[in-house]
Every structure is written in structure tokens, then in C-alpha cells.
Specification:
5-stranded antiparallel β-sheet; 704 residues; alpha+beta; binds adenosine-5'-triphosphate; nucleotide-binding
Length: 704
């Protein structure tokens, strides 16, 4: 994309480099400089007799790092679409990993001349079809690309929902392939939020590796206020697969996944990118067994030599490294390696190895398993929260004992990755060379991994199983998702997030007329939830009526005071400066998800579900009753992501606030009664979402 200027191709014979398809007119062969992400590339173009532009790379090495072929085909249906008039033509990657150049108007290419081309400016980007709010605030992220048109996609199911996105399965008509469209939510009037979203795009464009999800394009239009990221479609995620009843991965299979994870991580790290949210649900897996790291929403560029401060509020709690929990603002690849260690342990044991409910408890669990940090480490690291979090009693490292049933080479690798001192965790490339991968049994070939049924079928089966076990939590309709109480938080989150539309009983998703009526895509399924900021900078989450929905039912703002749970953690003196460590000692237990109104459910049903839930949580705190006729539930967040108030709208539009602690502080978390533990697990899951929201907001402030 972004073929900007050109020079006459006197040096190269176009014939030998051109795509074999179509005839071309040698007289109009030009050399163009194009940009793709940060890279400038030179391509050789020829206008074909049918008016199409054929373009190919002059020097394949220039694109070699992108893993692309040296041959480019035109994309777009001649005479129908993708005709640009503004000095740029689009290069994307087509389904065969070849460069595609969208059709350009010859006039737009300018007079052929020698020399380096200027980068396309904001005006050029707008003329190429980008909305001005994007070109003005995130020019870098879209540089060299042209937007894809929504009309060339057919939206299918909603397959996922993240803190800042809805993800849809869709069919790309132009390229004849299934894709995933991630609709990112942000406020175009808030430059921070646009820049934050742009960072995810920039990072994704910087990366090109078989084990990293590929950003294939962006969908928007001149007057659009929304943006879709186009990704290759992935059938599964690791947490989902690992949670299929009856599935137990064999060692070569685990090694195969982990090897791919390290390869992807190695690529990220070598390109100066920290992922900062490695967990099973962000490791997507296709039908050929290929694992790809996804969700770069919390990722960041890093330079080990630079002194730039990073936020420590990253990584989902269970996978968060101790230095982050202790408030580190200078850290590196080791945070991703810690998360990987947790995943390896989880794949072997079949359950999360460090399932903390709060940040303090997370640290406590880490110290209990990995040993308390040495005095030397405390002294050297000078981490901000060290002085307030120091274990009274010193824990001995007991990893080897805990994992005694695992193969020795796996324990060895976990030992390294779960080193308290980040400097001892090594690197992804080092891990790939350890004996774990070199001794028998070796990692199997991804193509030999079992083929799993589509996610929806798996979900349906799990729902059936859960129903049979009577583990229904707050659901009333046969077709609605049911999460087993002991489900992995990642899994339940993804199941809860997925497909909140009504089903026709055959597992097919039905959309309301209202949804289908919204234009843009060939078939539309609407996004029912919106998060945006009000004039005061508060985040508002709003959901509208008339769409069938299921999902978490109870709203409540709650603060869990973990201090009392942690009898072994001390040095929180009576007059400790709590605000200073509040991020550490308290954590919120509700998520935007909880606070949404699921409008398809009848009001009656909502009330029933609410009261059932209320009973379950009776001992856990106060919660105001939901109003029977509420229309919209809103949550207001401060710009930092802190939830200010949560309320539902009463029949006359009055606000009914919902609040109260949801978790009981206990003297000993390990001896929680089962039922309460179950509730806590549930809220820990929801807390993941909330933490994510909070983390992203913190990023906006600190890192954009
Ligand atoms: N390429 C893809 N193919 C299939 N499903 C996908 C794809 N990308 C994302 N998903 C699904 O959508 C969900 C949300 O996507 P993603 O994690 O990128 O969004 P997010 O808003 O960043 O979420 P989070 O709140 O976890 O950060 C994923 O958990 C996954 O289930």
C-alpha cells in the first residue's frame, strides 16, 4: 500500500518478475517505493492490458523478513472496487501469504521519477479512504495501507468478546476465506484511546511469524467511527482445548504447543515487543495444530537499554510475574517467560498452578511454590512494594516436589521459567534449546495433532455436561451458555463471551431483524454493547434492548480486601499508606460484563436470576436489588479505569445503585468452604476482565 512515487523501470526487465497471470504492457512498467509498516520496499509494477496493475517486489530480501513471496498479485475486482485516486494503492497479504496490491488509478501514481518517495501524509491517507480522525491521530499505524471495505465481508457469528472488542467470524468475499474481525471499541474524540488502539495495530504490523496472529488488514471507511481488525480465523484456543472433557494432552503434544509458543515469543522479543498477556485463551490454534499468539492489546515495545517506565499493571493475575506484582516499572522479556512457565505447569497438571484471587494472594501463592525471594534479591531489585510486602515467614522453594510426577525435563524448564529473579528465567530462544525439546519424546509435528470439533460444538457439549451435573449458574434458557462452576476462568470467560445471541436449537446463531438491518457488511450482526467515555472522561458501558442475551447477571461493585486473608504476609502496618499500595491490597471483583444489561432476557427472568444470585452471595456482602424494568445499565469509570458507580435505570429513569463487597475476607483462604470457594472462583474470573480494563486504562495514561 502506499505506492507513493515511482521511477521508470529502466533497469529491470519486468517480464521475469511479473506474476504469470495476465498480459502486461511493458511500456508502463514502473518502480514504486511502497511502505508496509515501518519498512520501505520497492516494487515493480506493470499495467496490464485489462487495466489492472501488476506489482511485484524488486528485491525479495527487502520483504524477506515478512516471509512473503516475491510475487504480487492484484487484488480487487476490476472495475468494481478498490479503485483509489489518491496517490496510494494498497498492498496487503492475501490468503496465500502473497502480497496483494489493490487496484489503483494509474494517474494516482504520479509522474515516474527517480528517488526515494515521501511518506504518505495525512491528506493522502484520507484520500485513500481512511477517516480523518484516524489519519490525524494514528497515521503511523495505517501508513502504507488502504482500508478494506466492509461490503466485501459477510459477518457470521460473534465468536469472542474482549474488554475492548467484539470478535466476529466472517467471510472475506474478495479473498474467499474465513477471517476473524475484531471490532475495537474506542472513542474517536479521545486521542489517547485512539493512540492506544493504534499501538496494537503497529505492534501487530511489526510482527510476522507463523506463530503470531497475522493482521491482514483494517476495515473502515471515510465517514466511519469504527474500525475492524482483520485476522486469519483460528478455530480454537489452548485453554478451550485443554478444557474439553476427556482431553489429556500427551507429552509430545504439550511440547509441540510449547515449542510454538516459544518460537512466537522469540520473534516478539527479538522485534522489541513484550506481549504482557500470555495465557491459554490468547494462544489460538488452527485446525492444522498451528498455535498463534494473539491479543496484543496489552503489548508494548520495549528497549532493554532504555530507561522508559512501563506499567506494572499488566498480565492476567494468575500468569503475572512476581516483579510486576511488586510494582516493577522496568522489566523485560522475563514477564512473558513467567507466564509461559505457568502455562506449561497447567498443561501438565490439568489446572492452573497459581490461581490467586487478589494480587496479594497471588504473591503469597508464588512464594509458597517458588520460595521467598532471597535477601539479596530484595536488596538488589528495589521494587516499590517490597517494603510493604515481605513474608513474615520464609518459604522454601518446593517446585520439584510439587511437580514430582512430571517428566524431569519439564520440571527443569518450569524451574527456570518460574525463577523469582527475572534475570534467571533465560530467554525464549534459550528455552528452545533446552533438553526439554531435545530429548525423547520430542515435540510432535503440529499436523499430527488431533483435529478437534469446532468450538461451538465443544461449548455445546460442555454445556450439556454441566447441565447434567446441575452446575447451572444463573441461566434459565436451554440455549444459553452454562459454565461449569469449576471451569477455567479463561475458558468460562471465552464461553461467556461467545455467542450471546439466541440459538435455534441446532447450535446456529440467530440474529434479530434489527441486527441484520444495520448496513455496512453484507450480513450484519450488531454489536450490542458499547463502551465509551462521557464528557467527564468516565467510561460508560451501555447495552441496548431487543437482543437475546445470556450471561453474568449480577452487578455489584465490590472491593475485596485481601489483607485479612494473608496472615502470612505482613508489614502492612496499621497505618500503612493504603492508597499507595491500594492496587496491591485491594482488587475489584466486578467487571463490565457483570454490569451489562442482557436485554433479551425478560425483565422477570432478570429478577429471578438476580435474586438467585443474590441468595448465593448473601453472606458475601450487600447488594442492592435490581429494578424490574430497567432499560440500560451503566457503569461509570474514572479515566484511570476505576469504577465510580454502578447503577441500573429504574422505571422512571431513576438510578439504582448497586454496590457492596462480594467477597468475604477470610482468615485462611486455603480452608474456604467449597461453596464460597466456588463463588470466589467465579468472581476471580470476572475480576480478570476488570483487571484487564483497568490495566488498559492505566496504559493509556502511562504509556501512550
Ligand atoms: N483470529 C481469531 N480467530 C478466532 N477467534 C478469535 C480470533 N481473535 C480473537 N478471537 C476470539 O475473540 C476473543 C477476544 O479477542 P481478543 O483477546 O483479541 O480481544 P480483547 O478485547 O483484546 O480481549 P481481552 O479482553 O482478553 O484483552 C478471544 O478470546 C478469542 O476467543
Amino acid at each position: 500500500m502506499g505506492c507513493i512515487s515511482s521511477k521508470e523501470n529502466k533497469l529491470h526487465s519486468p517480464k521475469e518478475r511479473l506474476s504469470s497471470r495476465g498480459n502486461y504492457d511493458r511500456r508502463v512498467a514502473h518502480v514504486y517505493s511502497c511502505s508496509r509498516g515501518d519498512e520501505e520496499v520497492r516494487v515493480n509494477s506493470n499495467k496490464l492490458e485489462n487495466g489492472d496493475l501488476k506489482v511485484m517486489l524488486i528485491d525479495k530480501k527487502e520483504f524477506g523478513s515478512c516471509g512473503l513471496d516475491d510475487h504480487i498479485e492484484t487484488d480487487g475486482i476490476p472495475g468494481q472496487d478498490d479503485k483509489r485516486t489518491a496517490g496510494s494503492c494498497g498492498i496487503g497479504v492475501n490468503s496465500h501469504s502473497k502480497l496483494t496490491v489493490e487496484k489503483c488509478d494509474e494517474g494516482s501514481l504520479g509522474h515516474p521519477s527517480w528517488g526515494r518517495v515521501p511518506k504518505s501524509g495525512e491528506a493522502g491517507q484520507v484520500a485513500a479512504g481512511w477517516p480523518s480522525w484516524l489519519a490525524s491521530q494514528a497515521s503511523e499505524a495505517i501508513r502504507g495501507w488502504v482500508p478494506r471495505q466492509a461490503a466485501t465481508f459477510k459477518k457470521l457469528d460473534r465468536i469472542g468478546q474482549g474488554t475492548y472488542s467484539n470478535v466476529y467470524k466472517a467471510y472475506d468475499v474478495t479473498r474467499d476465506k474465513t477471517v476473524a474481525l475484531k471490532k475495537v471499541r474506542f472513542d474517536i474524540n479521545d486521542s489517547e484511546s485512539v493512540k492506544f488502539m493504534a499501538r496494537e495495530i503497529l505492534i501487530l504490523r511489526r510482527l510476522d511469524h507463523p506463530n503470531i496472529i497475522k493482521l491482514e488488514g483494517l476495515i473502515t471507511s471515510e465517514n466511519s467511527h469504527s474500525l475492524y481488525l482483520v485476522f486469519e480465523y483460528m478455530e480454537h484456543d489452548l485453554t478451550g482445548l485443554a478444557s474439553i472433557p476427556g482431553i489429556k494432552f500427551k507429552e509430545p503434544q504439550i511440547k509441540c504447543y510449547i515449542q510454538q509458543l516459544f518460537s512466537g515469543l522469540d520473534h516478539c522479543h527479538s522485534r522489541g515487543v513484550l506481549h504482557r498477556d500470555i495465557k491459554g485463551s490468547n494462544l489460538l490454534i488452527d485446525n492444522n495444530g498451528i498455535l498463534k499468539i494473539a491479543d496484543f492489546g496489552l503489548a508494548s515495545f520495549f528497549d532493554p537499554k532504555s530507561n522508559t517506565q512501563l506499567t506494572s499493571r499488566v498480565v492476567t493475575l494468575w500468569y503475572r510475574a512476581p516483579e510486576l506484582l511488586l510494582g516493577a516499572s522496568h522489566y523485560g522479556v522475563a514477564v512473558d517467560l513467567w507466564s509461559t512457565g505457568c502455562i506449561i505447569g497447567e498443561l501438565y497438571t490439568g489446572k492452573p498452578i497459581l490461581p490467586g484471587r487478589t494480587e496479594v494472594e497471588q504473591l503469597h501463592k508464588i512464594f509458597k511454590l517458588c520460595g521467598s525471594p532471597s535477601e539479596d534479591y530484595w536488596r538488589r531489585s528495589k521494587l516499590p512494594h517490597m517494603s510493604v510486602i515481605k513474608t513474615q515467614r520464609s518459604y522454601r522453594r518446593c517446585l520439584a516436589e510439587t511437580f514430582r510426577d512430571l517428566p524431569a525435563s519439564a520440571v527443569g524448564l518450569i524451574e527456570t521459567l518460574l525463577s523469582i529473579d527475572p534475570a534467571q528465567r533465560g530467554t525464549a530462544s534459550f528455552a528452545l534449546r533446552t533438553e526439554y525439546f531435545t530429548i525423547e519424546p520430542r515435540a510432535c509435528d503440529p499436523s499430527t495433532l488431533p483435529k478437534y470439533p469446532p468450538r461451538r460444538e465443544i461449548d455445546a457439549k460442555m454445556q450439556d455436561d454441566a447441565r447434567r451435573q446441575g452446575a447451572v449458574v444463573g441461566r434459565t434458557k436451554e440455549s444459553e451458555a452454562v459454565i461449569p462452576s469449576n471451569a477455567h476462568p479463561d475458558l468460562s470467560t471465552s464461553v461467556q463471551r461467545r455467542d450471546r445471541h439466541s440459538s435455534n436449537g441446532r447450535g446456529e446463531i440467530l440474529y434479530s431483524k434489527k441486527e441484520q438491518a444495520v448496513s455496512g457488511f453484507l450480513d450484519y450482526c450488531s454489536n450490542q454493547t458499547q463502551a465509551f467515555r462521557d464528557g467527564k472522561g468516565h467510561y460508560l458501558v451501555q447495552q441496548h434492548k431487543n437482543v437475546s442475551h445470556s450471561g453474568p447477571l449480577i452487578s455489584g461493585t465490590g472491593w475485596t480486601n485481601a489483607g485479612k486473608n494473608m496472615d502470612n504476609l505482613h508489614q502492612v502496618p496499621a497505618r500503612t499508606n493504603l492508597p499507595k499500595v491500594s492496587g496491591l491490597l485491594t482488587s475489584r471483583t466486578s467487571s463490565p460484563e457483570e454490569h451489562r444489561h442482557y436485554p433479551g432476557s425478560s425483565d422477570q427472568k432478570l429478577v429471578k436470576q438476580a435474586s438467585r444470585f443474590h441468595n448465593l452471595l448473601n453472606e458475601a456482602g450487600s447488594m442492592r436489588k435490581q429494578d424490574q424494568n430497567h432499560q440500560i445499565r451503566r457503569m461509570a469509570y474514572s479515566p484511570s479505569g476505576q469504577m465510580r458507580k454502578s447503577y441500573v435505570r429504574g422505571p422512571r429513569g431513576n438510578k439504582i445503585y448497586v454496590s457492596g463487597p462480594l467477597l468475604y475476607p477470610s482468615n485462611n483462604g486455603d480452608q474456604m468452604p467449597q461453596e464460597r470457594d466456588r463463588q470466589i472462583q467465579k468472581y476471580a474470573r470476572q475480576q480478570h476482565d476488570q483487571t484487564k480494563l483497568e490495566m488498559r486504562n492505566t496504559h493509556r495514561k502511562q504509556e501512550t
